[in-house]
Design goal:
Distance between the termini: 58 Å
Strand order of the largest sheet: 8-7-6-9-10-13-12
Structural class: alpha/beta
Helix content: 25-40%
Shape: globular
Length: 322
C-alpha cells in the first residue's frame, strides 16, 4: 500500500473544529496499516475521525474481503448460511414494507445487491442502487439485473422527487459529508417518501462494554458516528420526521465481531484459548442461548446497530414580507 494521504476535518453537523479526543485504534476488521483517531465535537456532539484518510487512500480499505462485497445468496453453497443470511434481508424489507408497500426504491451503498435481491423477489419494487466499488457495482448490475450506478451518491444525477423509498444500510457512517447526503436523499424522495437507514448505535450497551474494541468504530472506514439525540436534531433540521428507531439487525454477528476484536488483545495463556472460545460462541447451543438476551437488548435499543425510519416533511416557506 502506498503512503497514506490524510485530510483535516471540521464537524459536518455544525462546522466547528473544536473537539475532544476519544481514542486511537487500528483497522481491526481487515488488519490493514495505520492508526486512526476518533474525536467528539465540542459544539454539537457528533463523533468523527480527525484527521481522516483522503478518498484515494481510504478506498484501499474496501477490499474484496469486505462483507458487503460477498456474492449473492444464490451462490452460497451452505443451505443453512443461505437461509440465515436471507432472514436478515427479509427483516430489513419487512420493516420497509410496514411503511411503504411498493414503488420505486433506491439502495445507496448497495454492495453486490443483497438487499436489492430480496426487494426484487417481492415483486413490489422497481429497484435501483448506487455503489462506489466498481467490481461490486458491475456484479450487482449483471446478477440482479438492475439499474446500478457506479460512484458515490453525491455524484449521481437522479431526478428530484423520483423515489418512494431510499435505503442506506450501514452506509451513512462511511460518507465524508453525511448531512449533504441526507439532504440529497430528501430531494430525491417524493412527498411523504421514506428514508430507512442503519448506523452504529454509539449509545448502546455493547459500545460501552467493549470500548475501543467495539465493532461500530470500524476504523478507518467509519468517518462519522451519530448519538441518537444529535441524529434526531439533524433529521428535523434537514426536513425529516423521525418515525421509528429500533435495533433488530444481526445482533449475534456484531457481538461475534466485538468478541473477536477484544480477544485480539489477550496475552498468554488466554490467547491460546481464543480460537476455542470463538468456536464455542458459534455453536448452536450458544446461539440459541443468546437469542432471548439479544432480543431483549434489541427491544431496549442497546445492541450495536440501530435502524432509523424517517419521513420526508415539507419545510414551511418563510414569509418574504416579514
Amino acid at each position: 500500500m502506498s503512503e497514506l494521504q490524510w485530510e483535516d476535518t471540521v464537524c459536518d453537523g455544525c462546522g466547528s473544529s473544536q473537539s475532544d479526543y476519544l481514542f486511537e485504534g487500528p483497522d481491526r476488521l481487515l488488519n490493514l496499516p495505520g492508526q486512526f483517531r476518533m474525536v467528539r465535537c465540542q459544539e454539537c456532539g457528533l463523533i468523527r475521525q480527525q484527521p481522516r484518510l483522503a478518498w484515494e487512500s481510504l478506498k484501499n480499505y474496501y477490499t474484496e474481503a469486505y462483507a458487503p462485497y460477498t456474492p449473492l445468496l444464490r451462490e452460497e453453497p451452505s443451505v443453512w448460511r443461505r437461509l440465515d443470511k436471507r432472514y436478515g434481508m427479509w427483516k430489513q424489507l419487512r420493516l420497509v414494507e410496514r411503511f411503504q408497500h411498493g414503488g420505486r426504491l433506491l439502495d445507496i451503498g448497495c454492495g453486490t445487491g443483497h438487499f436489492l435481491e430480496e426487494a426484487k423477489l417481492s415483486r413490489r419494487w422497481e429497484i435501483s442502487g448506487v455503489e462506489p466499488n466498481a467490481t461490486a457495482a458491475a456484479y450487482a448490475r449483471q446478477a440482479l439485473p438492475a439499474n446500478i450506478i457506479e460512484g458515490r451518491f453525491s455524484d449521481t444525477t437522479f431526478q428530484p422527487n423520483s423515489f418512494d423509498v431510499i435505503t442506506m444500510w450501514n452506509v451513512l457512517e462511511h460518507v465524508s459529508y453525511p448531512l449533504a447526503d441526507l439532504r440529497r436523499a430528501r430531494a430525491l424522495l417524493r412527498d411523504q417518501g421514506w428514508l430507512v437507514f442503519t448506523v452504529p448505535n454509539v449509545d448502546g450497551l455493547e459500545a460501552r462494554l467493549f470500548g475501543p474494541y467495539w465493532v461500530g468504530w470500524d476504523l478507518p472506514r467509519h468517518l462519522y458516528l451519530f448519538p441518537r439525540a444529535q441524529l434526531r436534531t439533524l433529521l428535523n433540521a434537514i426536513g425529516f420526521q423521525l418515525v421509528d428507531m429500533r435495533c433488530f439487525s444481526s445482533s449475534y454477528i456484531f457481538l461475534k465481531h466485538n468478541l473477536e476484536f477484544w480477544s485480539q488483545t489477550w496475552n498468554p495463556p488466554y490467547a491460546a484459548w481464543r480460537n476455542s472460545i470463538l468456536q464455542l460462541y458459534l455453536s448452536a447451543p450458544i446461539r440459541i442461548g443468546l437469542s432471548l438476551p439479544l432480543w431483549l437488548l434489541d427491544r431496549l435499543k442497546l445492541t450495536s446497530v440501530i435502524t432509523i425510519v424517517a419521513r420526508k416533511q415539507n419545510i414551511p416557506k418563510r414569509d418574504s414580507s416579514c
